[in-house]
Amino acid sequence: MRYSNISIGIVSIVFSSNIFALQTENSTILNVDKTPSTELGTIYVHPEYLEIEHLRNTKEIIVISKEQIQEKGHRTISDILAEVPSVSVGATGHGQIDIRGQGADQASRNIQVIVDGVPITALTNHPNQLNYDVIPVEQIERIEIIPGGGSVLYGSGASGGIVNITSSVKSIDNPVYSLSGESNSKGYRLNVNLGTRLNDNLAATFNASKLNRDLHFVDTFRHSEYYSGGLSWDINDTQNLTVRASHLSEDSLYLENISYDKVKKYGTNYRPKIKNGKRAYLYGDRRQDHISVTYRYNTVNNISVISDAFYQKGFYVGVKELDKTVYTNAFGIRNKVKWHYMNGGELLIGIDGTVQKSQLEYYSYKKPKIFNYDKRVFAGYIANQLKWGNWETSQGIRRELTKWGFEKARYQYSIKENQIFNDTKNLWNTAFDLSLAYHYSDSGRVYARYERGYTVPDGIQVTDIVSSMNKDKKKIYHYRGTKAEPEKFNMYEIGLKDSFKFTTVNLVGWYSQTNNQMSRLIYRGNYETINALKTKRWGMDLSMIQQFGNLTLEESYSYLKGRTDYASDEIRKYIASKRYKGKTSNFLRSGLQKVPRHKVALRATYDFTDNLSASVRYTYQSKYENTMYQEDQEGKGNDQVKSFEIVDLSMKYQPRDWIQVYGGITNVFDKKYFNYSSGTGFSPTIVPGAERGYFLGLKAVF
């Protein structure tokens, strides 16, 4: 079996060797394709990446297939991820993805989102937020979610988890012609794919997608166009070169959040007041161009080599003023060598190098503002696997250098002068992991895993604003590189995966701890990043699938809880010394901020015939705390986002092998609920959940 393409390869550092055939592997995972069989336990997943394959036996990996994405009427990546029990979308803010309860202020940093091997996580979410809906769902081949881990292979930010998105451009080796369209309550989607094999060694594909979608409130919308193409050349029996390119163009207008009172009074007809000649909407305009190259060298021996490189550039807005536009560009290269040795031994060696830059310059009250960042990451890692009998163990270590550079401007009112500050920060980090698995049957295994990970400061945290007196005894504020250390995480996981005659089971228990969580201390105009907090998180994930004749049942449940406190008495005293009247806060003991404790997903699918099926899905999400501190909760209302239950219906009809019609209803009972709430008291700001919606789509493959 040859590899699917991995994105990144313009300048290749090729390790001369050979590639092995990846073996298909049993996996009990949420929502995967079921190979026709009398036993549902026969579930096969073909790995797209060496990293994913390395983790598969000793880590929870959730796979969502292309077929499931299409059948459920999902319109964005956020829609897809919202169905996964261990993932929360929007609970910590507009467009944010939270895995395993990172909560407010942490979710955007403790996660990596990767599209075709390229990281798209923003350098900072201030002042502009970046959502992750960067590729149309029609062009997604597969999404792999790695909850809570993968630091050796992916580096900083993996403590929350990895969202690995594979686009249809990666299936160039099997090109097809397809056309699809969908009409729904909020707009429409169109997609066309043109794929062909030019000769025995050369294949090409081109995709185009268009999305027009109205959002919750009147006059809010999201309109996007996405184009991608690729060329795959089999140079000979042992070498392949793949080139891919894409362009995203998006215009959108939305409300980040509004008060509960206004939603209650106006509903979806609410419009912001006119101020300075315009209404206070947020702009979500975005452009992104991407190109990547992958070189693969395949021989008959026991070594694989893959060299990838990428380059991308673009901009995004995400604020109220169009002149506050963040311009970004990034490039990088990754090289991987995998060696099969002895009986079942595997050694994976990787070298990564990426550069990300962002630039934001604008005027505020006629004063210039500059937020420019330069982040360079250089890393090497070694990951080893050993198998003997029914036992399997893996070990890995990663060494990484992060070089942060920044340029920021601040107007000094005391001397009526604008000053520009530049500084750099070099951060060395080490991650390692150790796991052990026991295969007690052909389909069942138990495993235990320990991982030491880290998260470096983001663009805001890496800079402190501190004051000093100049020679004229006037207070001056200046930027400097923070003295805070990267967060260190200890993560533990135990799991069981098995499949029986009519059911599959995936059960995972986990625990995560950090004793030096970064926090922003604000006092008398100073902004200082300090390692102020310690946080514990723990939980469990359960997913099962049963098949009874034409009826398939799927159940998923996620439980998580956590606790935050000051890292030490010394830290509490230091914070008290900086604050007014020496006050510090007492943390709630009931859970983490903006982290639902329970999430349940149930689905029943019935095949009426070989061509007609219907599904009903039930989703429950529990309430969450809206604040971290006891004093913010006591005696006030609306401090929790209430629990909610949603029911969705869908149907699929395939009269011919080449054509499919699907449709459904989302939020069948039109339940009113909130995805997000900010602030305390009787009138917090909120983001309403989606109302009842309808969709009808058609797809043809030629």
TrEMBL record:
InterPro entries: Beta-barrel_TonB_sf, Plug_dom, Plug_dom_sf, TonB-dep_rcpt-like, TonB_rcpt_CS. It is a multi-pass membrane protein. Keywords: Cell outer membrane, Membrane, Receptor, Signal, TonB box, Transmembrane, Transmembrane beta strand, Transport. The keyword Zinc does not apply. The keyword Signal applies. PROSITE patterns: TONB_DEPENDENT_REC_2, TONB_DEPENDENT_REC_3. GO terms for cellular component: cell outer membrane. One of its GO terms (biological process) is siderophore transmembrane transport. A motif (TonB C-terminal box) lies at residues 685-702. GO terms for molecular function: siderophore uptake transmembrane transporter activity. It comes from the Bacteria. It is found in: Cell outer membrane. Residues 58-162 form the TonB-dependent receptor plug domain. Belongs to the TonB-dependent receptor family. This is TonB-dependent receptor. It comes from Phocoenobacter skyensis.
